[in-house]
TrEMBL record:
It is found in: Membrane. Its main location: membrane. It is a multi-pass membrane protein. Signal peptide: none annotated. This is Solute carrier family 13 (Sodium-dependent dicarboxylate transporter), member 2/3/5. GO terms for cellular component: plasma membrane. GO terms for molecular function: phosphate transmembrane transporter activity. Keywords: Membrane, Transmembrane, Transmembrane helix. CDD domains: SLC13_permease. It comes from Desulfovibrio gilichinskyi. The chain crosses the membrane at residues 17-37, 57-84, 105-124, 144-177, 189-214, 234-255, 284-303, 309-328, 340-358, 364-386, 393-414, 420-444, 456-482.
Length: 490
């Protein structure tokens, strides 16, 4: 055997081959295995798992393995999701691939465009320098400053748009760390932390994500009760902000920056800020366009007339305007991270596939009925765990949509108040810490190149455990003190 052949043999990636075959094996076994038993809810209704639904679960498992271990680029795994649905007749190709251009995917595209504009015009550098002048040279304070700014922004705008806005700011900050593009603990903590905090902050108001409005809609339809904007914020603020500071402590332990300080950073930030001079025409125009869109999107929750305007159409107005006013040109389209766009396109497709084939409902009923005779606290935490797992694979809106109705039916039998079910589901649905597809900020952070999907998953395990502990504490201690009914009288 020649030296060249030996070299090729040694470089062959057996680990990649193993996980590629594992994903394919899981799909094949699930798809072709005999029929599984029906799921039966407490009312006696049967939920059949059809061949198409089994196929959906198989695709779901394959995608999960391939995404976590990145056997192919994450966007290519998303293409496989559509291809498998079409080739194995799980859903028609027209339906499976139509989800790749769902409004939610275009919302993410438009959010990334905002980040691109902020970077090109220099607005992010200005913001980064201003923040560094305030927080100083200690890396632990830089972590905290970034996390607080991210959380605050999610109170008034969608966490996807926040992540797209903060991301280039983090790139500007990291450039001053002095390690180039090399992955470091500080880089990992900065970008993974931003993704986690965007989720934590987004649970606090209805403006942070669509999931809150959807869950409240289900709650009102099933129980005839309404939850107001400020009531949601009252109960969720301790959870969201508690997680912000706990996650800061978490990252200071597991990803403690290599450098405690960046000597001369404050002075360097002042100097660089001064060098930028006055605001340019493009900076002012970009700030006005984005600010106007954010204002209108925020007002949709308060002005009924604006609710009829779709949020994706609104945010795409900004994308179009960037080209109308020549802030961007056609060459800038090459800088769009299409791998990330495809990632979310595939996530939407598998989410709708699980929903439309009935696979998601079958899984939810089977899981929750296991706990229908358990202690009420165990039942509540089982809901938290199920929604947390589902929201890492599919849209958090879909995770709530498949679990909340079932949980609200079972809850009265165990003496559990419906309010606690709603708020527990909302808390965990907003914080998918395990997989990149769980939320757009996760995927946006991944584009930094500071971490792998596997690293994100590993750091997400203890972070998710912290979240479950916080939710458990809220259910048993905090929310009852705040006046939330947790159990039903008698």
């Amino acid at each position: 055997m020649s030296t060249a052949t030996l070299s090729q043999s040694k470089s062959f990636d057996f680990k990649r081959l193993f996980f590629m075959l594992l994903g394919l094996t899981l799909f094949t076994v699930v798809y072709y295995c005999p029929a599984w038993p029906d799921a039966i809810d407490p009312m006696g209704e049967h939920f059949i798992l059809s061949q198409e639904a089994k196929g959906a679960i198989g695709v779901f498992l394959l995608a999960g393995v391939w995404w976590v271990f990145e056997v192919v680029p994450i966007g290519v795994t998303s293409l496989a999701i559509g291809v498998l649905q079409a080739m194995f007749f799980i859903r028609p190709a027209k339906v499976a691939f139509k989800d790749f251009m769902d409004p939610s995917v275009l919302f993410i595209f438009a959010s990334i465009m905002i980040g691109l504009v902020f970077t090109k015009t220099g607005l992010t550098k200005r913001l980064a320098y201003k923040m560094l002048i305030i927080v100083g040279e200690k890396t632990k304070n830089i972590y905290l400053g970034v996390f607080i700014v991210t959380a605050l922004l999610t109170h008034i705008m969608a966490h996807t748009a926040v992540a797209a806005t903060i991301y280039p700011l983090l790139l500007a900050i990291y450039a001053l760390y002095g390690e180039g593009d090399k992955p470091t603990k500080f880089g990992k903590g900065l970008f993974i932390g931003m993704a986690y905090i965007a989720g934590a902050g987004s649970v606090i108001t209805l403006l942070g994500a669509a999931r809150g409005a959807v869950a409240i809609g289900f709650f009102q339809e099933i129980l005839g009760k309404d939850i107001t904007f400020f009531e949601l914020t009252y109960y969720m603020a301790p959870i969201g902000w508690g997680m912000v500071f706990l996650l800061w402590g978490f990252f200071m332990i597991v990803l403690k920056p290599e450098k405690a300080t960046i000597p001369g950073l404050r002075e360097k930030a002042r100097e660089l800020n001064k060098q930028m001079g006055p605001l340019s025409r493009d900076e002012i125009m970009a700030a006005v366009l984005v600010g106007s869109i954010i204002l209108i999107m925020s007002l949709r929750s308060f002005i009924p007339e604006l609710k009829a305007i779709d949020k994706t159409a609104l945010i795409l107005v900004s994308s179009i305007s960037f080209f109308i006013f020549k802030i961007l040109d056609i060459n800038d389209l090459e800088d769009i991270p299409w791998n990330i766009i495809l990632l979310f396109a595939g996530a939407m497709s598998i989410g709708f596939c699980l929903w439309e084939t009935g696979a998601a409902k079958w899984m939810a009923v089977n899981w929750l009925t296991i706990f229908q005779n358990a202690h009420w606290f165990i039942f509540v935490m089982s809901i938290a765990f199920f929604v947390l797992m589902m929201t890492n694979f599919i849209m958090n809106v879909a995770a709530i949509a498949i679990s909340l109705p079932v949980a609200l039916v079972i809850a009265p039998y165990l003496g559990v108040a419906p309010e606690v079910i709603l708020f527990v589901a909302l808390a965990v649905a907003g914080m998918p810490f395990l997989l990149l597809v769980g939320a757009a900020p996760n995927a946006i952070a991944y584009d930094s190149g500071q971490f792998t999907p596997g690293e994100f998953f590993l750091y997400g395990i203890p972070a998710s455990i912290i979240l479950l502990i916080v939710v458990g504490f809220a259910v048993l201690v905090l929310w009852p003190i705040m006046g939330m009914p947790v159990t039903l009288p008698g």
